[in-house]
UniProtKB/TrEMBL annotation:
Top EC class of this enzyme: isomerase
EC number: 5.4.99.5
UniProt record, GO biological process: chorismate metabolic process
Top-level division of the source organism's lineage: Bacteria
Gene Ontology molecular function: chorismate mutase activity; transferase activity
SUPFAM superfamilies: Aldolase (SSF51569), Chorismate mutase II (SSF48600)
Source lineage: Bacteria, Pseudomonadati, Bacteroidota, Saprospiria, Saprospirales
Domain Chorismate mutase residues, every copy: 264-355
Gene3D superfamilies, A to Z: Aldolase class I (3.20.20.70), Chorismate mutase (1.20.59.10)
Organism: Flavilitoribacter nigricans (strain ATCC 23147 / DSM 23189 / NBRC 102662 / NCIMB 1420 / SS-2) (Lewinella nigricans)
Protein name: chorismate mutase
SMART domains: CM_2 (SM00830)
Amino acid sequence: MEMKLQSILDNPHKRPIIIAGPCSAETEEQVLQTARDLAPQNIDLFRAGIWKPRTRPGSFEGVGTPGLKWLKKVKEETGMKVTTEVAKAEHVYQAIKHNIDVLWIGARTTVNPFSVQEVADAIEGVDIPVLIKNPINPDLGLWVGAIERIYKAGVTKIGVIHRGFSYHGDTPFRNVPRWQIAIELKRRFPDLVMICDNSHICGRRDTLFEVAQQAMDLNYDGIMTEVHPTPDDAWSDAKQQITPAQFQELVNNLVFRDATTDDIEFLETLDHLRKEIDHIDNELFNLLGHRMELADSIGQYKKRNNISILQTTRWNEILEKTIALGQAKGLSQEFVTTVLRAIHQESINHQEAVMSAEESKIGG
Ligand SMILES: C=C(O[C@@H]1C=C(C(=O)O)C=C[C@H]1O)C(=O)O
């Protein structure tokens, strides 16, 4: 679907876009205190969750509609624009009624097309900017689908928030970033404003800067970070929230990079290095093609001798020696195994094709 998108801010050239505020609005005092501390930091949008989707019942589920009045006060007192999460039609009506400037759709809503459609229908006819978080599962289609549903409701000021993806297993992240999914979205929709929610990716304070910097290095348009006057006392997501002073330090230390430049010397050097990369890619794939020809021959030979394709001893041997080789070349074990697994699978597919081709010949 072709989309003509506009900037979510009045100043389309403003980068980075800084969104900060508490995970949840808890009390009027807490909201106003955070806002007063953040206002001098020139942030673009003040965030606070009013309705909180929680994993299990019994946790704090947000103060609800009364909290919208506090956000209105934030606007009146500080002049900052405000944003909150909406998940249902009623949330949209209330948020618009209370002059919320920007809406965001949360990860647990993006996964459900029924909910996204309900929100889209409620927004229809109102030109309010909408930020769409990635779905909790790594499904780019759902993310794109949510963007399209909101766009079809007539909203042109759309941005996305990358907050990472659920993962069952050991990881230093609360939600693993899987940067490639966001990069693919950006490739398909280059005009889409992309914000990194480092708080939900990290789930802890000590890595917030690192992830925010990585997003800047990947040319994201901005960050969304949870800020609380006394993070340890927060009613939700206490572990990942930081104080306004810590947030200021984080932003001050971030290095913002330009998407590109017209500096001739830079472009020439880049072009030269890229030619070398092109050459290497060429060689790599020529070699891989040749490797698959050998796999085809092995497949034929195995077929004639009725030997199975998978040979775990050999596969293990390749893994071990290549991981060691990779290590010596500064390549991470994760990278080497990912590449090797893909090569191994392609080799198996080639041998499968060889074997089934021979089989059909016999059958015919
Ligand atoms: C090519 C073979 O078949 C499979 C593919 C391998 C590979 O591509 O390196 C290794 C072991 C087998 O699981 C083989 O047995 O050598």
